Amino acid sequence: VKLVESGGGLVQPGGSLRLSCVASGFKFDDYAIAWFRHAPGKERELLSCISPNNNNTYYADFVKGRFTTSRDNAKNTGYLQMNNLKTEEPAVYYCAAGLYCAGPDLYDYWGQGIQVTVSA
């Protein structure tokens, strides 16, 4: 089982990044895909989640209107489009797979994480 994130890096404040999460080793379309981030000295934060069949999405209040999650079940890939990134948002960003959109302890599989840096 593997989840591999890509698309991170350095972006200026106000800029955009699109993260991808490629899954293998399990039946992708049976699982919800969530995105988290973890910054040094802070708690891990749930950013978004998308249901297995694309019908339902969840966003944390602090990313609503700026971040969009999607998935392509044919490609076993989840996405997080991040717009208008802020200077307080550098962190390691993770994707996770679970049977439901829920709290962080209920996800079965996690990616290794990818660094996002927001700096001028």
* H/E element order: EEEEEEEEEEE
Give the integer mean of the pLDDT values: 96
Helix content percent band: under 10%
Total strand count, please?
11
Specify the oligomeric state: single chain
Overall 3D form = globular
Per DSSP, the total helix count is: 0
Low-confidence stretches: none
Quick synopsis:
The protein has 120 residues and is mainly beta. It is 0% helix and 49% strand.
What does the model show?
The termini are far apart. The chain has strands at residues 2-6, 9-11, 17-24, 32-38, 45-50, 57-59, 67-72, 77-82, 91-98, 109-110, 114-118. It is built from no helices and eleven strands. β4 (32-38) and β5 (45-50) form a beta hairpin. The protein is mainly β and 120 residues long. The mean pLDDT is 96. Strands 2, 4, 5, 6, 9, 10 and 11 form a seven-stranded mixed sheet that branches. A four-stranded antiparallel sheet has the order 1-3-8-7, with no helix packed on it.
Structure keywords:
49% strand, 120 residues, 4-stranded antiparallel β-sheet, 7-stranded mixed β-sheet, mainly beta
